[in-house]
Amino acid sequence: FGDGPLRGRKVVVSAGPTYEDIDPVRFIGNRSSGRMGFAIADAAREAGADVTLVAGPVALATPAGVARVDVRSARQMHDAVLAACDGSDIYIGAAAVGDYRPEQAAGQKLKKHDGAPLRLELTENPDILAAVAARPRPPFLVGFAAETHELARYAQDKLRRKGLDMIAANDVGDGRGFEVADNALVLYWRDGSVSLPRMPKTDLARQLVAHIAERFLSGHGH
Ligand code: PMT
After folding, report:
1. DSSP character for 17?
2. What domains can you pick out in the chain, each with its CATH number?
3. CA-CA distance, 143 to 141, in Å (whole number)?
4. Which terminus of the chain faces fewer neighbouring Cβ atoms within 10 Å, N or C?
5. Which atom in ligand 1 lies closest to the alpha carbon of residue 14?
């Protein structure tokens, strides 16, 4: 696996959106393309790690040397991430996991009803990061925070509330973050932070992985 700083380490990355089915032809999704998470998986492999990439429905090629597990819904992603995290050293949650799903996907295509409103009842999905954090020996945990306002406050709150070792915050207002090729991140950990300016996601992922490796190897995890 090469001889970078993460040589021999097991890293799990999640990427992309989740799709929550409404009926056989409709779903609730989001605009995540998977580019950020796929770039992170590639950068972690470049740093020497043994990488498992749990991918939502995206149209991207698998980075060379990375093991990929494809999923569709948040619950499938939850199960695949928990299985992959068994015995892993680092989990990086870059996926845009749907917070809610229709309680029951209809077995047949829903029909229109003479102009009457259609009500969808949504149930909260399990929190994948929280589930990984609750394991007996959790890996070094890196979450993302996608916010359109009050980025620093919400990110630091997620860092504490979800029991993370690091959080990567991105501003996703006005067409930023999702889908596009560039991104900028602010990394927070318990007693520090660093701003990574806007650059291609491939370069940003390398810098993110270097910061994660540095904090993980200096023993600043759980
Ligand atoms: O895929 P791209 O088009 O390249 O776009 C990249 C991105 C904007 C999607 C990415 O950089 C990003 O911000 N990913 C996280 C998006 C998100 O859902 O953020 P959040 O603030 O809603 O969630 C916070 C964290 O909790 C995330 O690490 C998320 O993976 C995790 N989470 C959320 C819900 C849930 N049920 N389980 C989780 O683990």
Report:
1. B
2. 10-111+118-217 (3.40.50.10300)
3. 7
4. C
5. 30
Q: What letter represents residue 169's amino acid?
A: A
* Ligand 1 site residues, Cβ closer than 6 angstroms: 16, 32-36, 74, 93-97, 99, 125, 127-129, 143-146, 158, 170, 172, 177-179
ipTM confidence: 0.98
Cα 126 to ligand 1 centre (Å): 14
In angstroms, rounded to a whole number, what is the distance separating the alpha carbons of residues 113 and 106? 15
User: Computed over its alpha carbons, how large is the radius of gyration of the chain?
Assistant: 18
Q: What is the pLDDT of residues 9-62, one digit of tens each?
A: 999 999 999 999 999 999 999 999 999 999 999 999 999 999 999 999 999 999
**Residue 62 burial (CB < 10 Å; 0-12/13-18/19+)?**
middle
Q: How far apart are the first and last CA of the chain?
A: 26
How many whole angstroms separate alpha carbon 155 and alpha carbon 169? Answer: 6
